[in-house]
Amino acid sequence: MYFHPPTFDPGPAATLIGLGVLLFLVAQPLLMRPLVRRLGEPAEPGRPSALMRINLLGVWLSPVEILAAVAFVGSARVVTSADIGLIVPRVQEDEPDVLFSSAGDLMAWGGTIAASVWLALFAVVLLVERSRCGAASPRSTTAQAGPSLPTDTELRWTLWSFALSSLSNTAALFVVVYPLVTVFVGPPAAVVAIALLLGWQQWGGGPLRMLRRALYGLLMALSHALLFSGSLFVPLAVWGLIVYLRSRSVRVLRQRLLQLPQTESEPPPLQVTMLDADGNPVQRPGR
User: Fold this and answer.
1) Band of the pLDDT at 204, cuts 50, 70, 90?
2) Strand runs labelled E in 135-219
3) d(CA 271, CA 96)
4) pLDDT in tens, 14-49
5) Which of 52, 78, 225, 238 has its CA 20 to 30 A from that of 180?
């Protein structure tokens, strides 16, 4: 079982970079909050909408997070591929001769069974989320879109921004935060840190949304640590599945927006009817 990086020693440089990444992940929702509040508002003339600016900011910040993860690994004092999850997923390194030969083996098998249950629950949560995305009605889609409906270009940029941000976020959490917290505090603290960071990233979206994302992070981190021996297979597979589900929901939203009736951008011209002394309408010339 994977409870600690085998040889990882960050050293002072990597520690400072890791703390910087951790601080950035904590401050990011606060910095994005002004733009999130303006979602749905009509854009100012000559300027992109708030949704488009959020998408562009996510696209530009994604390479920064990935470069920070590369700098963290490159500046570490001692690091191997197993330390950052670049290994083939496996449940246990050594098979015991006796099924429960010691209390440690019993705990390892119990952790494996518990992680399997958590992984199954995680899959159920993702399926429920997919059904929620597919069951949205055109009326609810219009209500969620706000006063200004997203354009086709904004929807495409939303998908690209989400995919790149998810990849860079996975690198920041499981290549930087997880090994760093594990070395100084321990694996349980690293699991809790990932769950809290993912929930905190949805700050402003409501407590239920924050709780749901924190649950995603908890299940993913537990599966990463217990079931697959610290391999990056679980985080990458999960985020790939979420990006796929998001792309399907974006396509459904785009189709339903195209089916909405087109409203007039300007009010109809005002018509005035003249009345004579008896109250009868006066016929205009040419009518």
Assistant:
1) confident
2) none
3) 89
4) 999 999 999 999 999 988 888 888 877 777 777 888
5) 238
